[in-house]
Amino acid sequence: MTALGLLRRRRALLNCAPISHDHLADRSMRAAVSRADGSDEFVNQQNFDRAVAELIRLVPLPPESAEWFLDKEAVRRPKWTWRRIILNPAVLAISIALVVIAGVFTFQVLGRLNDFPGSATARKLLTVAGSTRSVTLDPVSAEAGTLSDLFFMKHGLEHYDVPDEFADFRTIGCRVFDDDESQRIAQIWVAEKRMQFFLFPAERDSKTGAVLAFPGWRYVHQEGWVGAVTEHNGVCFMAALQGREKDLEPYLSGPKQ
């Protein structure tokens, strides 16, 4: 930049120099004021600016114009306290979101803790139970325990036996179908509390092919339905009804989980 340009720039800075030199943040402004400080021209300008500022302070503001100017005391920010932070809408929204996420995560973890081999298939069959109508099954009036022979002779299904706890229940109908994993599922509808029974292959170890057995009865829940599942001879049996665990408990024997 030429010498003439520097002089013009310095003059422009001095023309808008603040009255107080205590808080000169701009480096160029500080340099210009430092060079001109003490000169008659700059001193006269500063005195004139102070006189004008003092005169302006003495002029009363019309009421209709007062609202244009902010009151420093009125806009002073209050101190942040823990109560104010907690009640802040943004903090509340984030807190609620974290609580919901934690609740969903906890629910999923607790649900997984109660899982057992075949629980995923059992839940799918509870959905089937909720959408099945008795007219879609083949009418059969017999004791549920006698249908194992029918399943073996007609469909070649071995060990599809109804446990003793439910063997005496009178049936309304039954059917055999393939699920989405091509497993053969036997479904029985009984008159007792309009329960439905399901028999399906137990899960097996992917490497050894051994049956993943589990003791006693295990509960599963899905869309308002509850099922009690047990495993025997590589086949799982589930008694299902629309209700709660306490509705099935009177029919079960042995340990329940």
- In total, the number of domains comes to 3
Rg is 42 Å
As an assembly, this protein is single chain
Which residue ranges are poorly predicted, with pLDDT under 50 across at least 5 consecutive positions? none
**Structure summary, number of beta strands:** 7
What distance lies between the first and last C-alpha atoms, to the nearest angstrom? Answer: 87 Å
Report the mean per-residue pLDDT as an integer: 82
Number of H- or I-type helical stretches? 9
> Which class do the helix and strand fractions yield?
alpha+beta
| Sheet with most strands | 7 strands, antiparallel
One letter per element, helices H and strands E, the order comes to HHHHHHHEHEEEEEEH
Helix share, percent: 25-40%
Which of globular, elongated, flat, extended, rod-shaped describes the shape?
A: rod-shaped
β-strand percent reads: 15-25%
Q: Strand arrangement, largest sheet?
A: 1-2-3-4-7-6-5
Describe what you observe in this structure.
This protein is an alpha+beta fold and 257 residues long. It folds into three domains: 64 residues, no CATH class; 37 residues; 136 residues, no CATH class. 40% of the residues lie in helices and 17% in strands. The chain contains nine helices and seven strands; from the N terminus they run H-H-H-H-H-H-H-E-H-E-E-E-E-E-E-H. The chain has a seven-stranded antiparallel sheet with strand order 1-2-3-4-7-6-5. A hairpin with a 2-residue loop joins strand 5 and strand 6. Helix 1 packs across helix 2. It is rod-shaped.
